[in-house]
Predict the structure.
Amino acid sequence: MAVGSGFGAVRGCLGVLNRAFPLHTARSVTDMEAALQLVRNVVPPLAAWQHKGQAGRIGVVGGCPEYTGAPYFAAISALKVGADLSHVFSTQDAAPVIKSYSPELIVHPVLDSPSAVQDVEKWLPRLHALVVGPGLGRDDALLENVKGILEASKARGIPIVIDADGLWLVAQQPALIQGYQKAVLTPNHMEFSRLAEAVLGDALDGRDRCRAVLSLSRALGNVTVVQKGEQDVISDGEQVLTCSQEGSSRRCGGQGDLLSGSLGILAHWALLAGPEKTNGSGPLLVAAFGACALTRQCARQAFQKHGRATTTTDMITELGPAFSRLFETSAGADGGAAPTGELRL
Ligand SMILES: NC(=O)C1=CN([C@@H]2O[C@H](COP(=O)(O)OP(=O)(O)OC[C@H]3O[C@@H](n4cnc5c(N)ncnc54)[C@H](OP(=O)(O)O)[C@@H]3O)[C@@H](O)[C@H]2O)[C@@H](O)CC1
Ligand SMILES: Nc1ncnc2c1ncn2[C@@H]1O[C@H](COP(=O)(O)OP(=O)(O)OP(=O)(O)O)[C@@H](O)[C@H]1O
Ligand SMILES: [Mg+2]
C-alpha cells in the first residue's frame, strides 16, 4: 500500500475526510503499520560517529511550586526516547525539587526571574526543540515571561511543542502561535475546547473530532494539533491522522507530559529528516503520531504489569521497551544503519 494514499490526504474536502477517516470504525492494522513505518524512517541511528548532543538537546519550560512532576515527566521522557541532553527552565523554588527527582536533568531556576527571557534565550542556540507548558501554572508574571520565550524561539525557528498551561496562554493570545508551522499543540479534552472557543468562537464539543481538529489547525495557520483522547486525532491542516494504538484505561495524571516530552525529540528528528523520509506527509504530523503511539504503548505495557496501580512513573520505565517494540528492529539497534537517519528494517 502506498503510505501517502493510505493516510488519505485531506485538502479542503470534508467528504474525503469522512471516507478517509471513519473514526468510529476500526482503522486497519495496515494504516497503523504504515504510519509507524514513517516514524521509523525519521529515527536517527545510534552510531559510534555521533557526539553528545547530536541526537538532540531539548528544553522544557515549566515547573512551579505546585507542579514539579509534570516538567520532570516531560524532560525525562525526552531523554529516554533518545535525546542526549534535557533542560528544564522552571521557577526558582521548583528547581531543587525537580533536580532531586533526577540527576540526569539540567535544571535552570530562572522562570520567575526578571531576566527570565534573556536567561532562557542564551540557551536557545543550543536547543533543538522546546516543550512549553507542563507544570507551568497560570501566574501572570510567569506567563508574560513565557510569551517572551516563545517570541525568541519563533525568531530562531525552533520547533515548539505547547502543552498544558502553555495552551492556556495560547488560548488567551492565539496570535502568539498563529501561522508558526513549527509548533505542535497537544490539548486534552478541556484544553481543546478552550482553544476552539478562543480561536473559532465555538468549543466544538460533540462535533466530529477529525473535522474539529482539522478546523482548529487551519484556523491557526496550519499549526499541528494533537487532540488527545480515547483515540488521538492529529492534523496539520492538510491531513488528519488518528492513533488508536492500544493503551490502557488508567487515566492517572502525567501521561500527557510523557507525550509532550517524547514529541519534543521526535519533532526534532522528523524535521531533520524532512518530507522525503515521511513520504510527503508533514514531518510534525508523523512525529506527533509517533509520540501518541509510544505513549499509548507505554500505558499498555505498564498496565499489563501493574494493573490498577499503574502510574506515569511505571509508564516511563516502559519507554525503552515500547520504543524498541514500535520503532526499532535488531538491524537498527546495533548502530549498523547508515548515517542517513533511516533505520534498516
Ligand atoms: N504531577 C504533576 O505535577 C502533574 C501536573 N499537571 C499539571 O497540572 C496543571 C493543570 O493541568 P490540567 O490538565 O489539570 O488542567 P486543565 O486543562 O484545566 O484540566 C482541568 C480539568 O479539565 C477537565 N478534564 C480534563 N481532561 C478531561 C477529559 N478528557 N474529559 C473531560 N474533562 C476533562 C477536568 O475537569 P473535572 O473532571 O474536574 O470537572 C480537569 O480537572 C498543568 O500545569 C499540568 O501540566 C498535570 O500534567 C498532571 C501531572
Ligand atoms: N480514554 C482514553 N483511552 C485511552 N487512552 C487515552 C484516553 N484518554 C487519553 N488517553 C491517552 O493518554 C495520553 C494522555 O492524554 P490525556 O488526555 O490524559 O492528557 P492530559 O490530560 O494532558 O494528561 P496530564 O495528566 O499529563 O496533563 C494520550 O496518549 C492519550 O492517547
Ligand atoms: Mg496535560
Summary: The pocket of magnesium ion (ligand 3) is lined by residues 163-164, 188, 256 (CB under 6 Å). The longest strand covers residues 85-90. Residues 14 and 211 are 8 Å apart (CA to CA). Residues 1-27, 331-345 have pLDDT under 50 and may be disordered.
